[in-house]
Specification:
Number of strands of chain A: 9
Strand content of chain B: under 5%
Radius of gyration of chain A: 22 Å
Oligomer: heterodimer
Shape of chain A: elongated
Structural class of chain A: alpha+beta
Distance between the termini of chain A: 43 Å
Helix content of chain B: 55-70%
Strand content of chain A: 15-25%
Number of helices of chain A: 9
Shape of chain B: globular
Number of helices of chain B: 9
Order of helices and strands of chain B: HHHHHHHHH
Strand order of the largest sheet of chain A: 1-2-3-4-7
């Protein structure tokens, strides 16, 4: 055992240079790292050496790349942070109905039904199942939205992660202009998925913009995609801080730096 | 080789150039919140090392460009995942760049070709005009690499710049696996001390 440990320990160098041989070996070493503090700090130091070597290899990149990357970033949604705390979701006021401790699969089903039918109250999985079995149309609709969701999950790791998180909170609220926003909140990692149903269509040149409205500042959480049959596909919002509310405003395209109209939604986020 | 040389900070901003690194960390925090101007600044500061290290590993310019683009976009997408406790922003970004380059070679069929690569300690693409700062980094890394034994130096450059796994390095240098692990680790310890990384 002792020999085995030592053997693993000498792999710090190869690990820091990304020179381990297989995914299996990396997994094994990662596990070791989580238990071996001296290894972790050695790896950190070696990574700085590697960083120096990368800087030493500095090469002028093709100029055209800059424009391409910046343009791609401008239309690419960002992933939420991963914070490894396990804050238990707290109950909030009646404006934010919630179901605590939903599993990922249940969250998917719940968000599908809630989004599609614009439920402004959260329902338990049991209620959803009952409703589903009693109503073929509901079942069909849920299947459709679930298919859309699972497709979106394939394309969006962040979304997959949130919907697959062990414990999430489902929140929903009607907007002041009608329609409903449905949120799956992963309080532990401070990220959420939001989809909407039945929001009024906007004239050309206007967009729906999401905000994280905090006690100190308001941060854009991106634009809502254009609705398909009244439903917007799920959007991930990141970096929620304590006291944030999820806001929604109508903004001139392509969105604003700060809200310019009164929010039609202000959903408290219990993180 | 004095680890306290003031220019040591240039390529290990996480420990010595607190201010510089703090800026980069701050930038990343802004990037994580969707600030595109911050991303533009971050791009300008990191594109050289990102493209450079990928090019070292992959050699092929168009593949390198493709991977560098992916990496920089990944930095944008995953900025919120950056954890300062695990090292500075520069380290985070260059680690992603190196890993993606490695992913690329391990997933392509160019394996056979790669095994014939020799260690390339010299800087790549000398014909390209580069920032003074970069050449200082290079000079210092070169000096520290020269302070290693030959096997240490070859092991590290074959692994990091050559993109070889330690098993491949062992084969290339006709050394046992156990020996190569130790050489890489001992070499990195010496590099770390030479560069003044804490």
């Amino acid at each position: 055992m002792r020999f085995f440990r030592q053997d693993l320990h000498t792999l710090t160098g190869a690990y820091a240079l990304d020179a381990l041989d297989s995914a299996n070996e990396i997994t094994k070493f990662n596990r070791h790292l989580s238990r071996c503090q001296s290894c972790a700090s050695e790896v950190r130091g070696f990574r700085e050496v590697a960083t120096a070597m990368a800087f030493a290899a500095t090469t002028e990149a093709p100029l055209a790349m800059r424009e391409r990357v910046l343009a791609a970033a401008a239309r690419t949604r960002q992933l939420p942070p991963e914070i490894l705390t396990h804050a238990r979701p707290r109950r909030t006021g009646s404006s934010a109905p919630w179901i605590p401790w939903l599993s990922g699969a249940i969250a998917t089903a719940a968000i599908a039904v809630a989004v599609f039918f614009g439920f402004s109250q959260a329902h338990t999985q049991n209620e959803l199942n009952q409703a589903r079995s009693q109503n073929q149309a509901l079942a069909a609709a849920q299947t459709r939205v679930e298919a859309e969701l699972s497709q979106a999950r394939e394309h969006d790791q962040a979304l997959a992660q949130i919907l697959g998180a062990p414990h999430v909170t489902l929140l929903s609220q009607r907007t002041t202009k009608g329609g409903v926003a449905v949120v799956v909140l992963d309080a532990a990692t401070r990220k959420l998925v939001v989809a909407t149903s039945g929001l009024p269509a906007l004239p050309a040149g206007k967009v729906y913009q999401l905000w994280l409205i905090g006690p100190v500042k308001i941060v854009s959480a991106g634009l809502l995609p254009t609705a398909q049959a009244g439903v917007t596909t799920p959007v991930v919002a990141t970096g929620i801080v304590k006291g944030d509310k999820l806001g929604l405003t109508v903004e001139p395209a392509p969105g604003s730096k700060q809200p310019t109209t009164t929010p039609i939604l202000a959903l408290p986020l219990p993180v | 080789m004095n680890p306290n040389d003031s220019d040591a900070s240039r390529f290990r901003p996480a420990t010595a150039d607190r201010r510089g690194e703090q800026d980069l960390d701050d930038l990343l925090v802004h990037v994580a919140r969707g600030d595109q101007d911050a991303f533009e600044t971050l791009y300008d500061r990191m594109v050289g090392p990102v493209y450079g290290v990928i090019r070292k590993v992959l050699r092929d310019p168009s593949q390198s460009e493709e991977v560098a683009q992916e990496v920089l976009l990944e930095v944008w997408r995953t900025a919120a995942r950056f954890d300062p406790a695990m090292g500075g922003a520069a380290t985070w970004v260059t680690t992603i760049a190196h890993r993606r380059a490695i992913d690329r070679i391990r997933s392509t069929t160019a394996a056979a070709d790669r095994e014939h690569r020799t260690a390339d300690v010299s800087p790549p693409h000398d014909e390209v005009a580069e920032a003074v700062e970069a050449s200082l980094d290079r000079e210092r890394v070169r000096r520290c690499l020269e302070g290693l034994t030959e096997v240490q130096r070859e092991s590290i450059t074959l692994a990091y710049y050559g993109g070889n796994s330690y098993r491949q390095v062992a084969e290339l240098l006709h050394v046992t696996l156990g020996a190569i692990k130790t050489r890489i680790r001992d070499g990195l310890i010496r590099m770390r001390d030479c560069l003044g990384v804490s």
